[in-house]
């Protein structure tokens, strides 16, 4: 998959976030404190240098076909809304893990659901994966709701399923399989 790959929905354009958008990305993280409890790399003092590093790693993952992180943009205004990503791609099991976040100022507009549905469709129709997982903190009710609204099956609690600040945390596993 090439880094210039774009997904379109009715309102959104999903594409790689370019290096020259590092300041815009850092501003979005700094102004979105609702993300901090769920994403350990997000914090109020997130710098442009951290953004540049994050975006460079995102691009490298694209080039290596390890993961695909899409920035979410409004088609009409080009506002940066958030991200959806296929991470932890596991070709030997034909599956991957997906994640999503939306900047505080753009929440409650249905953007996460719209972008996540586009990512799920991309994973099943273009990458031909047969399983996707979304791992959410047990008390992240909003993320649970978004996963379920996109057709996820709640499979249960997985102990020590992910790391947060270097410490193992339990996670609720939601799965998606193609129809």
From TrEMBL:
- Domain of life per record: Bacteria
Give every N-acetyltransferase domain span: 23-170
Which Pfam families did the record assign? Acetyltransf_3 (PF13302)
Q: What is this protein called?
A: Ribosomal-protein-serine acetyltransferase
The lineage, from the top, is: Bacteria, Pseudomonadati, Pseudomonadota, Gammaproteobacteria, Vibrionales
